[in-house]
User: Fold these one by one.
Assistant:
Number 1:
Amino acid sequence: MNRQPALDLHAHMDVAIAPAELRQLGAVVFCATRSLDEAGAALARHDEQAVWGVGCHPGLVGAHKAFDRGRFAEFVRRTAFVSEVGLDGGSRVPMAVQQTTLTAVLAELQDVPRITSLHSYKATDLVIEALEVQPISGAVLHWWLGDLSQTRRALELGCFFSINASSIRRTDLLDIIPLDRLLTETDHPFGDRRGGRSARPGLVAAVERGLAQHYTKTPDSIRIRMWDNLARLATEAGCMAVLPRAIRLQLMAR
């Protein structure tokens, strides 16, 4: 039986969640915030099994209006995780405004690389182009909807991909994405709606089973591979030391 906790690289949770409730998830969760104000509250926490990110969601007008590069730079030094950032072609936020924010984010990450979960809904080409102009270490394309050509470009850039219960159905992409570039996610409460009342952050068992079936592995071996991939990602991004101690020790023991 696998003794390692499940790994959820992208979920949304209430910043006020009780520490005991967070521990009861039995998983290591990377918690995406959607604005700098939310990130400020999240980074005041000290959870050992969760990594709280700093984000500016491309779909939120208020988050962009309040975005400040100096404040973002301050926050990014306090966490190993940047999320949720990116571009959204269906957002009410003008694309030029989104691109200005993303350019500032990627500029900061040139000097302070982090594990960075990128949103790209209806903007896959634009996100790839942004990464080609400003390459970063630690890029993870969350809930990726790109085509095969765009996916190959992302692979050439060294991107990882976080897969949830919805994206696991994209077998055409899994055919070309190596297993060592994948990570599991829920994108709770958006990417796991099919789970109904049982859906919760960290519950990636269905994703693990789907990956096991596709790559002819066991679910236990998939979980081990996800932890190996996270260790590689954190090392490439040079942010291992910023992770919570309990998670860092699990990764360093690999």
Number 2:
Amino acid sequence: MCTARAPVPSASGSPAASFAQGAPFDTWPPDPALRERADEASGPDRAFAGVNDDELMGLIGARQRLESRAAWELLMAVAEFTRRRPEPGCKLDLPGRMPAAWSQHADAELGAQLRLSRIAADQLIGLAHALTAQLPATSAALRDGLIDLAKVRIIAWQCDLLTPEEAAAAEALLFGDPGVGEMTSGMIRDRIARAVIQVNPKKAMKRRE
């Protein structure tokens, strides 16, 4: 019978050796240093010359974390845009200095900039608003590359009806699991749905309806 051996850091000497399993950049946070090293390791034409399979998988993981960070950066910029486009009479008195509602023209303005439909732009504003005013732990997880944008959308949808305090309690139940970074989208959906039920069963029922 073939038995698996624990992988060891690459000794290939390739430009991507530091991305092999167990090597420093295999789990490096999504900062400018990671992007720079990933670019160098991938090669100018992204031919991945001299990169073995173990190193390539590390590079793929690094790109996913960087993609999460880029999504977070965009959403934080959209959150600032929302602060500057409050609905008339709305003060910035929600957590994160967010207004309770945004201008009815904000979606058209943002959509024109991003080449999005008004519906898609409004959804993007809503997600940025939720991360800033209601889901700071989810926002931090996206920033740090722990989860991707698809999982963020699942969490935001499940917590949509919760108050900031209730959402914080649901986030604590989800992110209190040390294995959350390894969960699939389906597992995230199941765990956050259970957390919402535990925090406020009536709102969980309303969400399902």
